[in-house]
Amino acid sequence: MSRSNAYWLALGTALISGFSNYLAKIAVTVVSDPVVFTLLKNAVVAVLLVGIIAFVSRFREWRRLSRQQWVRLITIGVVGGSIPFILFFVGLTKTTALSGGLIHKTLFIWVALLAVPFLKERITALQGAAFILLILGNFMLGGVKGFSWGTGELMILAATLFWAVENIIAKKVLADLSSITVAGARMAFGSVILAVVVLFQGNFDMIFTLTGTQWLWTLIPAALLLGYVTTWYTALKYARASIVASLLVPATFITNILTQVLQDKTMTPAQISSGVAICLGIGLLLWELFRQRSQSYQYAADAHRTN
């Protein structure tokens, strides 16, 4: 896959995430326990991914994994597929959704800060300007009024940092492994840890008492999560981590549009301003990326003519 196609795939991931965020609000209310809901949703995706791997390759890539690669995959399951989910959902019970959302929307900033030293990614001036527009878009939507630091906010910040670290580790692991293998490991190992937590909480029996409606509202988000994790990891394999994380920011704007349209509401000036800033930021980012690609092609053509 070309790098430019990976950019479009990342925007497709943002579209899936926008729908997923909207439906997750309904689903977690129907299932009632956020940790049990997360366990079931992630476990369904893990089973599907492992099934796809078994059907397509019969675990050929898994059988060739070195001990170091197994350690890295288990690490991704811990820092990406389990602990941050628990921190995020428990943190949400101790603070407002507004504060939680505002903190989580800083993920692309942390990924960019980590990608520079650990992945040697370069941030140009235009990319920096695009990042500032994305940050402004998020703050226009959430604002800082009523924001305060407490246990819940710190837990959500910790979850966001875990997911930022996951981006960096996954980018390194994806250099040698397929995206489907890494995604399957993330969901499988993460689900095992989540199951242990649910057992420790004494809520495992709840799984066997779910109604048909609750299972339906678990399977719908699981289908979206399957699309999200496979497209996200594929984009991450072929494009820079800081860019992929930034291209996921429009998910919030998509969720807002769905909320206004499906609930017959009118968008507020703050939401419209936020959407404009995010669209300008993404547009500037894409323009800079495709400008860099054109320059690379031009340099290659000049070098070929010189030789």
What features would you describe in this structure?
By secondary structure, this protein is mainly α. The chain is 81% helix and 0% strand. It has 14 helices and no strands. Helix 8 (125-142) runs antiparallel to helix 14. The longest helix is centred in the last third of the chain and has 38 residues, at 269-306.
- What's the story with the biggest beta sheet? none
SS elements, strand count: 0
Give the helix level as a range of percent. over 70%
Shape: globular
Question: What structural class should be given to the helix and strand makeup?
Answer: mainly alpha
Q: Whole-number radius of gyration?
A: 20 Å
Strand content: under 5%
Order of helices and strands: HHHHHHHHHHHHHH
Averaged pLDDT, please?
84
In whole angstroms, the N-to-C terminal distance is 28 Å
Which key features would you list for this structure?
single chain, 307 residues, mainly alpha, 14 helices, globular
Short description:
Helix content is 81%, strand content 0%.
Topology summary:
Layout: H1 3-31, H2 34-57, H3 60-63, H4 67-79, H5 83-92, H6 97-104, H7 107-119, H8 125-142, H9 151-173, H10 179-201, H11 212-238, H12 241-247, H13 251-262, H14 269-306
Helix pairs in contact: 1-11, 1-12, 1-13, 2-10, 2-11, 4-9, 4-10, 5-9, 6-9, 7-9, 7-12, 8-14, 10-11
